[in-house]
Amino acid sequence: MILATDLDGTFLAGDAAARHRLYRLVDQHPGIRLIFITGRGLEAVMPLLSDPAIPRPDYVVCDVGATVVDGHTLQPLQPLQSMIDAHWPGEQVVAAAMRRFTALQRQDVPQERRCSYFCDPATLAPLRAQIQAAAQALGCDVLYSADRYLDILPPDTDKGRTLAALARLLDLPRDRILVAGDTLNDLSMYTAGFRGVCVGDSEPALTAATTGLTHTYHAQAPGCGGILEAIEHFALLPADDAWLKPPAVKRAEGADLVMLYHRMPFDEVMEDGVLVQRPPRSPNGIIPSLLSFFQGGQTGSWVAWGIDDPKRGPFQTHMAVDAERYPTLTAARVPLTRQEVDIFYKRFSKEAFWPMLHVFWERARFREDDWQVFLEVNRRFAEATAAEAAHGATVWIHDYNLWMVPATLRELRPDLKIAFFHHTYFPSADVFNVVPWRREIIGSLLCCDYIGFHIPRQVENFVDVVRGAMPAERLSWESCAPRFLTYGCAVGLDTMTTRIRVGDREVALGAHPVGTDLRRIHDVLARPSVRNDIFKLRREIGARKLVLSVERLDYTKGTLAKLEAFERLLEQHPDRQGKVTLLMVCVPAAREMTVYRTLQNQIEQAVGRINGRFSRLDWTPVRFFAQALPFEEVVAHYAAAQVMWITPLRDGLNLVAKEFVATHGIEGSNGVLVLSEFAGAAAELKGAVLTNPHDPADLTAGLLQALSMPEEEAGGRMRQLFGSVEYYDVDRWGREFLGAVKETGNA
C-alpha cells in the first residue's frame, strides 16, 4: 500500500487517538510506503521531518507538484525534477510578468518553481482570463484554490500529474495507491484516477467535485480518522492484519515516578566474584539529591545502564537501591556492553556533544556510526522506562546523554507525563546547529511535556534553536528579575519564555538552578574527623590566605587560564608572594577518555613552572592534586579556604560554588566567592565577585579584589549568597521542578 497524502487538514488533522493509530500503522507496517504531497514548500515541510511523532515519508512532493525529493535524503528525485525544472522560466521572470496585476498579493511562504498569490474573490474573477493569458505566454499553468488563491506553475504540473509521473518512475502499482486530501487544491489527485479519500470536514467544493468519482470515498471522520476509514473501505490491508490492531493497554501497576539517569545511584564493583553496591564516589554529584525524592514512599524506578559482562554472571535487570532508606525504589538496569558504554558515554557524548554544548564546537567530532549506537542505547532506555512506569506516571529524564528517549517513549507510552532536565549548558542556535542530527534531537525534546534548564539564558537558547528548525509560537513568558540577574553578567536575561507551541503540541519551559543539599554539608561539618581536618588545614596554611579551586579535568573549566592569572598576580604584586597559596583539586577523567591527557600535561607543566619561579623553603605557591577527594575532605577544604576561585569558560551551573557558600554560611565565616560570569550560577548567586575568564587581566583583577576585600564587605556578600543558597536548596529545586511538571498537560 502507498499512502499519498496532503498534510494540513488531512495527515496532520483528526483527533489525537486517530493520529496516533495511523502514524503507528504507517511507521511500523513493513508493507506501507508514505508520500507527502502538499502545497507547502520544502522548507515548510522540513520541520515535520524533525518530529519523531510523525512518520518519515519515503518521498515528498511539494509546491503543488513542482518539487519532488527523496524523503530521507531530501535530494531531488531525478530525472523527474529536471523535467519539471526544464519548463520553469524562473521566479523573477514570473514575478515580473504578474507585477502588472496590482491586486495580486504575493504569498510570503517558502516556495520553489512556483509563484503563489492571494486576491479578493470579487476582484480576482474578472482578471482570470488576463492572468491565464500572461501565464500561457510564459509557458506556465495557473492553478486556483478557494476562489482566492492561485499558483503559477510549470506546465502540466499539479499534485495529480506529478504523483502519476512519480508512480511511473518508481513502478508503483496504481491500484495500491491511496490519495487523501481535504481541499480543492487536491482535486487533481482524484481526477488522475487514483483511489482516493476526501476526509471528513473537507471543503464543500472538493466534495461536490468528487461526488461522481466511483473510486473516491467520502469519509465521516476528519483527518487521520478518515484515512483509516478509507483503508478499511478499499480493503487495502487484510482485515486480520496484525498491524491494524490497536496497541495493548498498558498495565496500571508500576512506578509513579521514574528517574532516568545515565548511571546507577550506586557504584557497582566485583568483590570475590560477586557484584556489590557501593556509595557513589562523586563528591558533588546530583545522585544523592535525586535519591531524596524517593524518601516519601511513592513507588519509584531508577533506570540506568548496567554492564552486561558474562564474567559478572547472569545480568540482573532489577536490583534494590537501598531497602532501608528507599524501600519502594527499584533500580531497573539497562544492559550495555563495555563497548557500548565507551561509545555512548565516554567517547561520543564527550567528544561530540560535550564540546559543542560548552561552545567549543571546533573540538566536536561527529561520527554517524557512533550516532547509531547513541540512538540504540536511548531506545533501550525508553523501552525499559515504558515497562517500568505506571499508567499516567511522571518520567524525569536527565541530561543530554538521553536526548532521544522522549521520542521513543512518547510513541510507546502516550499516557506518560515526560519531563526533561538539562544539566549541562545549552548553547544558542549558532552553535547547536553544527550538530548533524540537530533536527532529530530537537524533535525528540519537543515530545516532552516540560523541559527545565538551570537559568533563563539556557531556556532562551533552546527556544532560539527550536525557532530556527521549525515554526514555533511563544505563548507565555515571565520576567527573570528578581530571582535572576538580568544585565549584571554574561548569562543574564530580562525575560524568559515559559511555554511554546509547535504544531499542535505545547511544551512548558522553566529555569530551575539545582540547589545544594545543606543537610548533608551540615552533617559533614559536625563530624569530629572533619573538624580535625579543618583545624589541620588552617594550621598548615597559617597566616597565609588559601585560594581553593575544585573542578574536574576539562578544557571547559579554564584551569590553564586560571594558573596563568595566578602567575601574573605573583609577578605584578610581589608583596603577595609568600602570603597566598593556591590549592587546586583537579579530578582526572577516566583513563579511557584520552582527549584530556594533553590538557593534564599542560596543567602539570604550568604548576611546575609557577612553583619553580616563586617557591621558597617555607612556601609553595601552587599545591596541585590530580585526584578525587572524599566529600568530607572537600568540605574541610571549603571551610579552611578564604577564597573560592571558580572560573569555567562555560558551565551549565556549578554546584561547587554553592557548596562553598553553604559551608561558610553554616560555619558563619566570611569566605569570598570569585565566579566566572559564564557559569550558570552567576545569574543567581548575587554577592559573588564575577570575573571574565576570557580576559586575562580581569581574571587576575578578580582574584586580587577577593584577596584585598575588607572583612565587612566579605561578610555582607556571604550573607547575601548564603541567603539564596539556603532558601533555594536541593529540596526546593526538586519540589518546584516536579510542581511545574504537574501543572502541565500531556502533549
Explain this structure to me?
By secondary structure, the protein is of the alpha/beta class. It contains 27 helices and 29 strands. The protein has a ten-stranded mixed beta sheet, with helices on both faces. It has a seven-stranded mixed beta sheet with strand order 4-3-2-1-9-10-11, with helices on both faces. It is elongated. The mean pLDDT is 92.
Kindly report the spatial arrangement of strands forming the biggest sheet: 16-17-15-12-18-19-20-23-22-21
β content, as a range?
15-25%
Which residues form runs of ≥5 with pLDDT under 50? none
Residue-averaged pLDDT: 92
Sheet with the most strands, sense and barrel status: 10 strands, mixed
Distance between the termini: 30 Å
- Name the helicity range: 25-40%
* Structural class label: alpha/beta
**Count of helices?**
27
Task: Draw up the topology in text.
Blueprint: E1 2-5, H1 7-11, H2 16-28, E2 33-37, H3 42-49, E3 59-62, E4 67-70, H4 80-85, H5 91-98, E5 105-106, E6 115-118, H6 121-124, H7 128-137, E7 141-145, E8 149-153, H8 159-170, E9 177-181, H9 187-191, E10 195-200, H10 204-210, E11 216-222, H11 223-233, E12 255-260, E13 267-271, E14 274-278, H12 287-291, E15 300-307, E16 318-322, E17 326-336, H13 338-357, H14 368-388, E18 389-398, H15 405-412, E19 417-421, H16 429-432, H17 438-445, E20 450-453, H18 456-469, E21 473-479, E22 495-502, E23 505-511, H19 518-525, H20 528-541, E24 545-552, H21 559-572, E25 580-587, H22 597-614, E26 622-625, H23 631-640, E27 643-646, H24 655-667, E28 672-676, E29 689-691, H25 696-708, H26 711-727, H27 730-742
Parallel strand pairs: 1-2, 1-9, 2-3, 9-10, 10-11, 12-15, 12-18, 15-17, 18-19, 19-20, 20-23, 24-25, 24-27, 25-26, 27-28, 28-29
Antiparallel strand pairs: 3-4, 5-6, 6-8, 7-8, 13-14, 16-17, 21-22, 22-23
Helix pairs in contact: 2-11, 13-14, 14-15, 19-24, 20-23, 21-22, 21-25, 24-26
